[in-house]
From TrEMBL, chain A:
Keyword Transmembrane helix set for record: yes
Alphabetical keyword list: Cell membrane, Membrane, Symport, Transmembrane, Transmembrane helix, Transport
Compartmental location: Cell membrane
One GO cellular component term: plasma membrane
Keyword DNA-binding: no
One MF annotation (Gene Ontology) recorded for this entry: symporter activity
Cross-referenced CDD domains: SLC5sbd_u4
Transmembrane segments annotated in the record for this chain: 6-27, 47-72, 78-96, 122-147, 153-176, 188-206, 395-418, 430-455, 475-503, 524-543, 549-573, 580-598, 618-639
Listed Pfam families: SSF (PF00474)
Organism: Lignipirellula cremea
Protein origin, superkingdom: Bacteria
Designated name of the protein: Cation/acetate symporter ActP
Membrane topology: Multi-pass membrane protein
From TrEMBL, chain B:
Record organism: Lignipirellula cremea
Top-level lineage group: Bacteria
Protein name per the record: Inner membrane protein YjcH
InterPro entries documented for this protein: DUF485
Pfam families in the cross-refs: DUF485
Length: 645, 78
């Protein structure tokens, strides 16, 4: 049901992509020189650049990832919104004007402005590449995730489509077309997200009381002490039997019922309330058998069968109880939206993978959860509610990385070179903060709207926003899906451009001291764009299973650890030496990457080994590696300054 | 850096840092406070979160209105 193709969506999507590419070809003529290709000749109006900041920044992680995280975990997704926006304060108050004053094409220019050191160009170029590639992976994964349900195509096709479109955009016109694509996408994203939130508020909330649910979708509640006896008595009326809890099902969390030898077993999750009463909620299962996907015991079907029904996972996301026993609220105000949810009970979807010998099966089940709990931090970042101090440090480390990361992202920093002066850099950042902040306010409404929409796909939380749109109107789904796809196009083109700048300008021309004239430099950058684009396509396919928002959190950590210490200290301390900058970038980059590779999250999610074996005490590196970058810069600068004297 | 804009930027940065640190600190060390509902039946976690977003924009506007155009002529050609 979730992945039904929509011809309207395909038509709007195709029109968006065609328009984007057309714009790119049209603007191609404006990118003949290096300054035109890398910095759009510095002629972008500040307002356009400000909205383009939003287009650049509101990536797959922000739009798809955050909304999905809120839809599945509540408030914790909003913590990312708060952290991402806070980062812009650092960008505006500390970095914007000096970046514009000191640099020309790339972030390395600014870092190297007082030293003219090949070493700084080398490490800054490598750091730009490392951060950009880290950031590219979730964008490409997000592209595949979108295309899969929208066009009914495999994940890898989506990744290749985005990669090809982006390479075309970047190769044809560079920063000019990238800016306009991002302006277009940023503006449309905010406008249509506002429309979507308006429709969510107009629709209000509807509860689905247990007694109104389909027969046997919920069993109980039973008294905790003898629930098996009470269950058996009820099942007898429906000629159902309880299947033995053996093998995969040797767990008290689930119960399987059978209506006969030919019928697929029904799986129920066992949920205990605070008072000790036990309720059984019907769950859903997904398993692979001989290379085919089986959903709830039957093979998944992409088209409707003879009975006119397409066999697929049922959508989830609903309110179980509204305050005061109401069944429907009708249109609701922006503040009443939250106060109502706080007093409601929602069904929250979770996944558990059961393993026995070589068999595995994913069970998706819903748990009634109080709104007052979901609208507080701690549902996703469960570590902040434990007594383990390292878990709390992990959360603090993430929030620090989000705060420091924005002002260190190469693809954001190069946007300061597209406007004419420092005043324009400042004004465009303010426009960016306003646009991005407004979207993040909307993100909480969109996420919670999706949580209660009855339209969520249990297997894919990145699709929460488009599926919420589909539950409101088919045309809105078409537009939101197309914007989401353009979201990926805009951000990926910015990242590829930053990478191409690092390769052509920083590494080959400045560090390698290769002799390029202006047009040759542009040609080398275009070739670099194709190479980075192909690498991005491959990584997007390889890292298909990764959590989009989580990966972006790591990209922020690496950016903040490698780039921020040098950038900030260069502006505020006269004692900085080139050796200090080189050491700080190198130490920040290698320690943050190393920390990530040795962390419990990487052990469990990437290497698939016991996270207990991890070397680092928590997974997010920023809390250690950002101060380490500052410390390295200060110590090495002091040492080398003394030597120079 | 000792210009008016840089000093103003640093001052506003530290004001926002204090607001942000207060929020993160409450989330980790005093979540019970975030659960209180001081206004319109909405909890402090949501109100504080929205306030942080609005404060970022308000301080940005303040910065924009107060800044001086000190080095505009050099822009882009450093």
């Amino acid at each position: 049901m979730n992945h039904e193709q929509s011809f309207g969506a395909i038509a709007v999507f195709a029109a968006f992509v065609a328009f984007t590419l057309g714009l790119s070809f049209y603007l191609g003529g404006k990118a003949k020189s290096a300054k035109g290709y890398f910095a759009a000749e510095g002629e972008i109006p500040w307002f356009i650049n400000g909205v383009a900041f939003a287009g650049d920044y509101l990536s797959a992680a922000s739009f798809l990832g955050i909304c999905g995280m809120i839809a599945f975990f509540g408030y914790d997704g909003f913590l990312y919104s708060i952290g991402y926006l806070a980062g812009w304060v650092v960008a505006l108050f500390v970095v914007a004007e000096p970046m514009k004053r000191l640099g020309k094409f790339t972030f390395a220019d600014a870092l190297d402005s007082t030293f003219q050191s090949r070493g700084i160009k080398l490490v800054a170029g490598i750091s730009t590449l490392a951060v950009s590639v880290f950031y590219l992976i979730p964008q490409m994964v997000g592209a595949g995730v979108l295309v899969e349900p929208l066009l009914g195509l495999p994940h890898y096709v989506g990744v290749i489509m985005v990669g090809a479109a982006v390479i075309l955009i970047v190769v044809t016109a560079g920063m000019v077309s990238t800016t306009w694509v991002q302006f277009l996408k940023g503006g449309l994203l905010v406008v249509f997200s506002t429309v979507m939130v308006g429709m969510v508020l107009m629709r209000g909330f509807t509860a689905t009381p247990i007694e109104d649910m389909p027969e046997l979708a919920v069993l109980g509640p039973y008294s905790g002490g003898s629930y098996e006896t009470e269950l058996a008595a009820e099942l007898e009326k429906h000629s159902l039997t309880v299947l033995p809890a053996t093998g995969l099902w040797d767990t008290p969390d689930f119960v399987r019922l059978s209506a006969g030898p030919d019928a697929a077993p029904l799986v129920y999750s066992v949920s205990m309330s605070a008072s000790g009463a036990i309720t059984l909620f019907e769950a859903q299962t997904v398993e692979m058998v001989d290379g085919k996907k089986f959903v709830n015991g039957r093979e998944q079907e992409n088209v409707a069968g003879e009975d006119g029904v397409r066999h697929d996972l049922r959508p989830v996301g609903r309110i179980l109880k509204l305050p005061d026993g109401e069944t429907s609220t009708g249109p609701i105000g922006p503040l009443k939206f939250f106060s109502t949810l706080q007093q409601s009970t929602m069904m929250i979807s979770s996944k558990k993978t059961l393993k026995f010998e070589t068999d595995t099966i994913d069970v998706y089940f819903e748990t009634p959860t109080l709104g007052s709990k979901l609208l507080l931090p701690g549902q996703y970042f469960t570590g902040i509610r434990t007594k383990l101090f390292s878990d709390k440090l992990n959360f603090l480390s993430l929030m620090l990385a989000l705060f420091c990361g924005t002002a260190s992202l190469p693809h954001i920093l190069i946007r300061y070179y597209t406007v004419k002066d420092e005043s324009s850099a400042r004004k465009s950042t303010i426009v960016g903060i306003g646009t991005i902040g407004f979207f993040y306010v909307l993100s909480l409404y969109i996420g919670l709207g999706a949580m209660t929409s009855g339209a969520l796909d249990v297997t894919n939380n990145n699709m929460a926003a488009p599926l919420l749109a589909r539950s409101l109107a088919e045309w809105l789904f078409a537009v939101i899906s197309a914007i989401a796809f353009t979201t990926v196009l805009g951000t990926v083109s910015g990242l590829i451009l930053a990478s191409a700048g690092a390769v052509a300008h920083d590494l080959l021309k400045e560090f390698g001291q290769m002799e390029f004239n202006d047009s040759e430099q542009v040609r080398v950058a275009k070739i670099s764009s194709v190479v980075v684009g192909v690498v991005a396509i491959v990584l997007g396919i390889v890292f298909k299973e990764f959590n989009v928002t989580y990966l972006v959190g790591w990209a922020f950590s690496v950016a903040a650890s490698a780039n921020l210490p040098s950038l900030v200290m260069l502006l505020f301390w006269k004692g900085v030496t080139k050796q200090g900058v080189i050491a700080a970038v190198t130490v920040g980059m290698t320690t943050s990457l190393g920390w990530i590779l040795l962390s419990a999250d990487t052990f469990s999610k990437v290497y698939k080994i016991d996270p207990e074996l991890a070397i680092t005490p928590f997974s997010q590196p920023g809390l250690v590696t950002i101060p380490l970058g500052f410390l390295t810069l200060i110590v090495v600068s002091l040492l080398t300054k003394k030597r120079a004297e | 850096m000792n210009t008016f804009n840089a000093r103003l930027g640093l001052l506003l940065f530290f004001i926002y840092l204090a607001l942000y640190s207060g929020f993160v600190g409450l989330a980790v060390f005093a979540p019970g406070i975030l659960a209180t509902t001081p206004w319109a039946g909405v909890n402090l976690a949501i109100l504080y979160g929205f306030a942080l977003i609005i404060a970022a924009f308000a301080l940005a506007i303040l910065y924009g209105l107060t800044c001086r155009d000190e080095n505009s002529s050099k822009g882009g050609e450093a």
